[in-house]
Amino acid sequence: MTKALKGITRIxxxxxxxxGWMIRITRGGVRKQEFFxxxxxxxxxxxxxxxxxxxxxxxxxxxxxxxxxxxxxxxNSTGKVGVHMVRNVDSRWKNAESFGYCASWVTSEGExxxxxxxxxxxxxxxxxxxxxxxxxxxxxxxxKIVAMCASKAGKGSKPVKSAVKQISAVKPTKGANPIKGxxxxxxxxxxxxxxxxxxNRASK
Length: 204
Hints:
A hairpin with a 5-residue loop joins β6 and β7. This protein is an alpha+beta fold and 204 residues long. The protein has helices spanning 38-41, 44-61, 119-122, 124-137, 142-153, 158-167; strands at residues 8-11, 20-27, 30-37, 83-89, 93-94, 97-106, 112-118, 183-184. The longest helix has 18 residues, at 44-61. α4 crosses α5 (142-153). The strands form 3 sheets. A 3-stranded antiparallel sheet has the order 1-2-3. Strands 4-6-7 form a 3-stranded antiparallel sheet. Among the domains are: 8-61; 83-170, no CATH class.
């Protein structure tokens, strides 16, 4: 099996005498391609060498590769690249839903990272500022982001400054309802068959 080569494809079909290498490159919306026939170049190895040299020349003179990184797309609803609104629903509680802002990005190693900030805990404005700060610095360490936000708050960001002061004091209780005003759903336990309820002694 031929090792994969960037921009170069081996053309070799059963029952077809024409064999060789096809090179393709697309940059700036313009696509170029050329076929290198084995017979024309005197064999498979020589045609591959010619194909590699041609592709290298094209790649060197072509405009840089365009990616969607740090570019706003039609799916963006917040106006900030890499920051979107999230809605969470907790099935354990009736009418329990919460909102926040989530920052996401892809590292240089190709790994996806994200971190969210809830409106209820930080406030809508502070949650936005924290998410934007996390995205700009590509940082998923919550404590560091809050510390950075606290230092910036001294420069006039009153909503963030107020929220940062309350962050350390806001520690959700384990098992507590995270949504203000939501009531827990009562679960009815099934009665086991074969057992009867004990009579009330006061009724005797």
